[in-house]
Structures are given as structure tokens and as C-alpha cells.
Amino acid sequence: MAHTTDVIVVGLGAMGSAALYHLAQRGVRVIGFDRYAPPHALGSTHGLSRIIRESYYEHPRYVPLVQRAYELWAELERRVARRLFYQTGGLMIGAADGVLVSGALRSAREHGLEHELLSAKDVHGRFPGFVLPNEMSGFFEPRAGVLDPEGCVDAHLQLAAAAGAEVRLNEPLREWGVKGGRVRVVTELGTYDAARLALCAGAWNPALIDDDSIALRVERQVMHWFTPARTPELFEPSRCPIAMTEYAPDRIFYFVPDSGDGVKAAIHHEGEVTDPDAIRREVTDEDVAPVTSLLRRYLPNAAGPLRGSATCLYTNTSDGHFLLAPHDSHEEVLIVSACSGHGFKFASAIGEAVADLTMSLPRPDLIPFGRQRPVPGQAGRRDIVDSR
Ligand SMILES: Cc1cc2nc3c(=O)[nH]c(=O)nc-3n(C[C@H](O)[C@H](O)[C@H](O)COP(=O)(O)OP(=O)(O)OC[C@H]3O[C@@H](n4cnc5c(N)ncnc54)[C@H](O)[C@@H]3O)c2cc1C
User: Fold this and answer.
1) What's the mean pLDDT when you consider all of the chain?
2) Topology (CATH level 3) of domain 88-145+217-316
3) pLDDT digits (tens, 9 = 90+) for 115-125
4) With a 6 A CB cut-off, is 14 part of the ligand 1 pocket?
5) Residue 109: CA atoms inside 13 Å, Cβ hemisphere, count?
6) Where are the domains of the chain?
7) CA–CA separation, 327 and 324 (whole Å)
8) For ligand 1, atom 44, which residue shows the shortest CA distance?
9) Is 151 in the pocket of ligand 1 (CB under 6 A)?
10) 168-204, pLDDT tens digit by residue?
11) Centre of ligand 1 from the C-alpha of residue 348, in Å
């Protein structure tokens, strides 16, 4: 006999845990499954920090969604009585007409967001850890900062369970199907029946969704932590913002200040196409060297000994924008958010959106993240390396 419920959420990482929380808060009967026990380090939501920023260079259309996410993160913090967000301010660095600075400026102007444009010298004067070539500009936004990804997943799951959600960990979905308007899900441990299914399996979604109209590519990413070589006080979150630097046209390197584990630095995209079950987890000199060199170039005092590195996964759409859409053949099934490497900050708001959509509430603001979107221009580099 199948176990019957209203909604099933598969994958309880960033998006699934938030969806489970919002559904349970509304009194919906919901079961969430994960193949592992999130927060874990095998998907896309680990590594101690995720940047959140409001002047969204990728497109101004993300601004209302990130503003809602800020509100929901603050609410989550209050409810769980734990700090999940650290405001540091954020610097977008690069050519004035490059994707970062001009994109952030466009969002700030369209939405009336507080910001400052800084010269390379201004940036150094204000944040002495940064040493930029004269031709670079800085865009500073005060609201940016860092979220604790593992803490956020944990908080969503804890509160979802307290509100009545059934959380089933270490129970992988094997297959799903739709018959007579009902969804049937088979896991390693049982069979379940529901009105709706939200597929939030992150990098595993491409193999699960069974929808030929969607092309997703999973990309290997490596993040690194360094002990500052000198003046560590300049890299403390109270004095140092998060930063993204367009070091060559449309090529981005990002930096998170040191909250006790070292400064974090990584290249955004430029990884190899991979598979979540076959990703190369070992980190080599080839992964470390370009990041060390960028750190030496723009934050020379931060470039001390490497403390550690970790691999992670991006799930990319072809245009780098999000995808949050019903399945092409089954409207009962929602495919949640291939976030192309920039989705964590939105997870609280995406969880709320999933709850709305599975309850058939109108969300016209999400149309741009659906299947029939206008061609909005590229949000992330597409020329990732296919080494297979
Ligand atoms: C290195 C790195 C840095 C990033 N930095 C930022 C940043 O600074 N700011 C930002 O906003 N975003 C950032 N992102 C992107 C962001 O972290 C991701 O968009 C987000 O975490 C994706 O969440 P998810 O829920 O889709 O995937 P996940 O959190 O990976 O969750 C998917 C879950 O599905 C489960 N699952 C898979 N298959 C099954 C199955 N068959 N049955 C049951 N469960 C299953 C997995 O175990 C996993 O727990 C970064 C990503 C990476 C990799």
C-alpha cells in the first residue's frame, strides 16, 4: 500500500529544505526525501559561506526575489534563534563597462538601491586589503554579505519537522510517475502517492527529471581557503566586504572574508562538465594555482598558505538563468531551480515560491524563470570545459 500525502519534495538541500519548511508552515501534508542527510558535502550546499547581494548584476529581474529572500532569511534567523547572515557589504570589481560593474549598476538604478561607485584608489583607501589596477572600478553595495549554508538547511529542516513535515533522510528516490493526476514515487524503502511532486535534487535533477525539453549541465567547482599572509585584521568580516572581480571579460573570481576558517576564494564557472556521482573530488595544483595567482594579484596580503579546498557542483541552464517550471508532460511535477551557480541566496524565497506553485497560487513574477522565457542575455559563462 502506498503511503499517501499532499506534496512530496525530493532533495532536501538548499531548495528542498526551504520548500519543505514553507509547505509545512502552511499546514500542507508533506514528505521530504533525501538520499543523504543534509546538510552534507556531496551536492551544492556546503563550504561554510554563500554570498548574498542585492544589486544583482545577472539581471534586475532578480532583485525583488532576492529582497524577499532577505526578509525570509531574517525571519528564519529569528525563528531558529541562530545567526545565519553576516552583513559585510559587497564589492563588484572590474572594467566599468564589464558585466559585473555595469550589471550591478543597472540593477541598483532600476530598483533605487543604495550604492557607491569607487575608483581603484578609493577601493584601496576604504578596504586596504584590495590592491587594484588603476583601470578597474568598484561598485559597492552595503547590504551584501554572507549566509551560513549548512546552518540555513539545518534550520529549515528543523522547523519543517517541528511544523509536521515528515523528513526521510538516507532514502533515495528510485523512480517517479504520474497516473490519473496523482504522483507515485518509489524510494529504496517504499512507495508513496501524492498530489504534487517537487524535484529539488540539485545536480541529480538532470538524471531524474525525464524531460527532454530541458538541457542542464553539471559543472565541477573548487573553493579554497587561505590563511592571510599578512595583516589578517584587514580580512575580517567587520572590515572587509565580499567581493567579485571580473579579472578578464566575463571571467569572475570571488572572495569571502575570514570568519575563522581563512579567506575563501574561487573562480565562478570555468569548471569541467561532470556528473554528481562521478565528480573528481581530489583537488590538484591545477585547481589551486589560478586562484592563488588571482588572490596575489588583487588581495596580495590575503595570499598565504592554503588551508583547504573542497569540490562542489553547479547545475547550469544554457543561459545561466534559473529554471523553476512545471514538467513538460506532467503539470503535477515541479522542476526546482537549476540555479546555475548563483541560487543559494534565493533559497528561502524559492522555497516559498515552490509552496505557492504546488498550491496553484499565482506567481507571475516567476514567469521569467519558466520555460518560455524571453532571451534575456547571458547570466553566466557558458564556455565551461567539457572534458568527458
Ligand atoms: C562552490 C559553490 C559556490 C557557490 N556560491 C554561491 C554563492 O556565493 N551565492 C549563491 O547564491 N549561490 C552560490 N552557489 C550556488 C548554490 O549553492 C546552489 O545554487 C544551491 O546550493 C543549490 O541547491 P539545491 O537545493 O539545488 O542543491 P543541493 O543543496 O545539492 O540539494 C540537492 C539534494 O538532493 C538530494 N538528492 C539527489 N538525488 C536524490 C534522490 N534520488 N533521492 C533523494 N534525494 C536526492 C541530494 O542528496 C541533495 O541533498 C554556489 C555553489 C557552489 C558549488
Assistant:
1) 95
2) D-Amino Acid Oxidase; Chain A, domain 2 (3.30.9)
3) 999 999 999 99
4) yes
5) 8
6) 88-145+217-316
7) 10
8) 34
9) no
10) 999 999 999 999 999 999 999 999 999 999 999 999 9
11) 13
